């Protein structure tokens, strides 16, 4: 049976699509305070500020197009004879635009979530304070994005994939935010080979067995091409 591959992606894969990362120089967290715009407490305190932050990011993501790194991962998912599971921390939707199927552990900008009943629906371009829920009518709509202090989505499924994969790769993520930063240890524990693809070292680089260093738009297509060349029938 062909190897099962799990790939974790972070903001670095979308940087060359024009979407800023969080912690690189001039990143989002240099311009905004996390506690103001990315916590349940921040939303309770000033929902207009939070909606404004995500409305702007939603508009930017809607304009953005996938780069060769997103396209290469979609190609790998399509052409690899085994299973390729892509888990993303990104909320920008660029993997889907490239044709990939992904697990969104931090939610998605194009989705709205009702705080009152848990219903989800396609987010309008501009969410407003008191956003009405189409299911229960409560004015409790919020961006369907996982904030600090909240549990990431689909963790059971992700853990299962990590424990059964043969190869784990992390692309463009700083290794500063858990639980995603701990995936490499879980995959290592499961006996998987591990590779990090990043512009520079992450906080967990030393745990990976292999490193590919450079911009995602170059190193991800190169890595995917090498994997696909390794398929005996290719
Ligand atoms: N190619 C490859 N890697 C890149 C590129 C690029 N062109 N540009 C930046 N990087 C790398 C950086 O070296 C860094 O390791 O991407 C990483 C970006 O790190 P962060 O800004 O911390 O983004 P990420 O790891 O995705 O953040 C995790 O933190 O605030 C939360 O919820 C948010 O999902 C996010 C989570």
Please outline the helices and strands:
Blueprint: E1 5-9, H1 28-31, H2 34-37, H3 40-45, H4 47-63, H5 68-79, E2 84-88, H6 94-97, E3 102-104, E4 107-114, E5 120-122, E6 141-145, H7 155-163, E7 167-171, H8 183-189, E8 193-198, E9 210-213, H9 216-229
Parallel strand pairs: 1-2, 1-7, 2-3, 7-8, 8-9
Antiparallel strand pairs: 4-5, 4-6
Bound molecules: adenosine-5-diphosphoribose.
Residues 10-12, 15-16, 21-24, 27, 89, 106, 172-174, 176-177, 198-200, 202, 215-216 line the site of adenosine-5-diphosphoribose.
Pick out its properties.
three-stranded antiparallel β-sheet; 2 domains; binds adenosine-5-diphosphoribose; Rossmann fold; six-stranded parallel β-sheet; alpha/beta; globular; 234 residues
In words, what does this structure look like?
- With 234 residues, the protein is α/β, with parallel strands linked by helices.
- It has 2 domains: 1-19 and 66-106 and 152-234, TPP-binding domain (Rossmann fold), CATH 3.40.50; 20-63 and 109-145, SIR2/SIRT2 'Small Domain' (2-Layer Sandwich).
- It is 33% helix and 19% strand.
- It has 9 helices and 9 strands.
- It has helices at residues 28-31, 34-37, 40-45, 47-63, 68-79, 94-97, 155-163, 183-189, 216-229; strands spanning 5-9, 84-88, 102-104, 107-114, 120-122, 141-145, 167-171, 193-198, 210-213.
- The strands form 2 sheets. A 6-stranded parallel β-sheet has the order 3-2-1-7-8-9, with helices on both faces. The protein has a 3-stranded antiparallel β-sheet with strand order 5-4-6, with helices on one face.
- Helix 8 (183-189) links the parallel strand 7 and strand 8 (193-198).
- The protein is globular.
- Residues 10-12, 15-16, 21-24, 27, 89, 106, 172-174, 176-177, 198-200, 202, 215-216 line the site of adenosine-5-diphosphoribose.
